[in-house]
Design goal:
Layout lengths: L3 E6 L15 H4 L3 H6 L3 E4 L8 E2 L1 H8 L4 H4 L3 H8 L9 E11 L2 E4 L6 H14 L6 E5 L4 E6 L17 E5 L5 E5 L18 H19 L2 H8 L7 E8 L8 H5 L3 E5 L2 H9 L3 E4 L6 H15 L5 E6 L1 H7 L3 H20 L9 E5 L3 E3 L4 E3 L5 E4 L11 H6 L11 H9 L2
Parallel strand pairs: 1-13, 1-14, 11-12, 11-13
Antiparallel strand pairs: 2-17, 3-9, 4-5, 4-7, 4-10, 6-7, 8-9, 14-17, 15-16
Helix pairs in contact: 5-10, 11-13, 12-13
Length: 420
C-alpha cells in the first residue's frame, strides 16, 4: 500500500527579509533534496484562521483536517494530554510559560531552563503551593509547563482571560474557544479576568496560584543559583488557553481510511496526535538539531513499515523566529533538507504512489517575532503532478491548487488523491 509522510515545520512561513535579498528564510535556504522532489510536485497556499494569527494548536488541527473553530475547547487540553497529565471533563487544563517580570512590567515570556531546573521547579510548586483546590503541575520543554486544576465542589470555567501578553482568548458558540496571536504594546502585567460571570471563581483561583507559585519559585534553589550565575530569572507564570473539556476530535484513521502514526517531541503536538487517534512515537526534543532530526527521521522510517501515514513535527524554526534569528531559521531549514528530507527520499517511492507533504502550522515573522495571519506554503509530492520550481511562499502564492483554499482542505484533498 502507498505511504504518506506529512511534515509540519512549526512557523516555517515568514515575510520577505531585506537582509536575505528580500526572500523569506524558506526561499533563501539551500534545499537540494527538496528540489529533487519537485519533478512531481504541486503547491497550495491556504489560509489557516483567516484574519486571525493562529497559535500552533489551531494550525496543526487545521492541517490535519479539523476546523479549530468547530472543535477547539482551548489549547490547554492538548498541552496537558501531551504531558501525560490525563485531564478529564470538568478539570481545568492550562498552558504555562515560565517568564520574567520586573516592577510589574514584562521582561520576557520565555525563560529557557534545563530539564533539571524545570523538574526542580515542578517539584517545588507541587509540594509548596497552596490553593483551595487539588492541582498537578508538570514541566515541559524549554520554558513550558502544564497545569491541571482538578474539579471539585465549585465548577471550573474556561471563560477566563490569558495573562500572557500577545495572546487574546476568543470564545465561540457551544463552548468553543481559541487564542490567537494579537501582539501587544503595553507591557504591564494584568491579572487573569473572568470573561463571563461563571468564570469569576476560576479567575480568582488562577490569580492565587500565580501569586503563590511566583513566591515559591523565588525561594527555590534554582532561582538562587540563577541569581548567582547572573542568568535570566524565572519569577512569574504566564498562563493561557484554559480548557475544561475534551474537544472529542473524530478519529483520523477512520475519517481518512488510513492508519496514522505521529513522530513528535513537543507536548502540544503529542496531545493533538493522541486526541485524533494516532499512535505516538514518544520522543523528547533534543538540544542538538542534528540529533533531533536524525532521531525523528529514524523513527519515521521505522514506523512507515507498519503505518500508512506518518505525521512528523519539527519545532525549531518557530523558536528561531520568536527570537528574531532569521539566519538561524533558514539554516535550520537547510538541516531539515539535509537530514530529514534526504533520509525520507530514500524510502519514499513516488513512482509507486507514495506521497510527501511539507507545510507549516502558521507563519511566524522573524522581524516581528510573532505569529502572523499570512497564508501557509504547502508542498505535495505525488506522481500525479508535474514539475514545480522553487518551493517557497512566492511560488506557492503564484501557482497553487485551487481546491485547497483553507488548511482544513489539505487532508480532504489528500483523501481524494489516495483513491487514484
Amino acid at each position: 500500500m502507498a505511504k504518506t509522510v506529512f511534515i509540519i515545520v512549526d512557523g516555517m512561513a515568514d515575510l520577505p527579509i531585506k537582509m536575505l535579498n528580500n526572500k523569506t528564510p524558506l526561499e533563501y535556504a539551500y534545499k537540494p533534496n527538496i528540489t529533487l522532489l519537485l519533478k512531481n510536485a504541486a503547491y497550495a497556499y491556504p489560509s489557516v484562521l483567516g484574519k486571525l494569527a493562529p497559535q500552533s494548536d489551531a494550525g496543526v488541527m487545521a492541517d490535519l483536517g479539523y476546523d479549530p473553530i468547530k472543535y477547539s475547547t482551548g489549547r490547554g487540553w492538548f498541552e496537558c494530554v501531551g504531558l501525560g497529565m490525563k485531564p478529564t471533563d470538568g478539570d481545568l487544563s492550562i498552558r504555562v510559560n515560565f517568564g520574567e517580570v520586573n516592577n510589574g512590567k514584562l521582561s520576557s515570556v520565555r525563560v529557557y531552563m534545563s530539564k533539571e531546573e524545570l523538574k526542580d521547579l515542578e517539584d517545588e510548586i507541587n509540594s509548596k503551593v497552596r490553593i483551595p483546590a487539588e492541582f498537578d503541575f508538570k514541566s515541559g520543554e524549554g520554558y513550558r509547563a502544564g497545569l491541571v486544576i482538578r474539579k471539585g465542589k465549585v465548577p471550573l470555567s474556561a471563560y477566563v482571560s490569558n495573562n500572557e501578553p500577545g495572546y487574546t482568548a476568543k470564545f465561540y458558540p457551544n463552548g468553543k474557544k481559541l487564542s490567537f496571536a494579537s501582539g501587544f504594546k503595553d507591557t504591564t502585567i494584568k491579572p487573569v479576568k473572568a470573561m463571563r460571570r461563571e468564570g469569576a471563581a476560576t479567575a480568582r483561583l488562577l490569580n492565587t496560584f500565580i501569586k503563590e507559585a511566583s513566591r515559591v519559585i523565588k525561594e527555590s534553589k534554582v532561582y538562587r543559583n540563577r541569581v548567582k550565575n547572573k542568568q535570566q530569572l524565572p519569577n512569574f507564570l504566564f498562563i493561557r488557553d484554559a480548557a475544561v473539556r475534551d474537544p472529542r476530535l473524530p478519529d483520523i484513521n477512520e475519517t481518512s481510511g488510513k492508519k496514522w502514526c505521529a513522530v513528535a517531541g513537543m507536548p502540544l503536538e503529542k496531545g493533538i496526535a493522541e486526541s485524533v487517534g494516532m499512535e505516538l512515537v514518544d520522543l523528547s526534543e533534543y538540544p542538538s538539531l542534528n540529533e533531533d532530526l536524525t532521531r525523528k527521521a529514524d523513527a519515521a522510517v521505522s514506523v512507515l513499515k507498519s503505518f500508512d501515514c506518518v505525521y512528523i513535527h519539527i519545532k525549531q524554526t518557530d523558536s528561531a523566529s520568536h527570537l528574531g534569528k532569521y539566519t538561524d531559521k533558514y539554516a535550520i531549514i537547510e538541516v531539515i533538507d539535509r537530514i530529514l528530507i534526504s533520509r525520507l527520499s530514500k524510502v519514499i517511492s513516488v513512482d509507486k504512489g507514495d506521497t510527501l507533504v511539507m507545510t507549516c502550522d502558521h507563519a511566524t515573522s522573524s522581524e516581528l517575532k510573532r505569529h502572523i495571519d499570512s497564508n501557509i506554503p504547502v508542498l505535495i509530492v505525488n506522481k500525479r503532478f508535474g514539475r514545480s520550481n522553487d518551493f517557497g511562499e512566492t511560488a506557492c502564492r503564484k501557482n497553487h491548487l485551487k481546491q485547497i483554499r483553507k488548511a482544513t482542505d489539505i487532508i480532504p484533498f489528500m483523501t481524494k488523491l489516495w483513491r487514484y
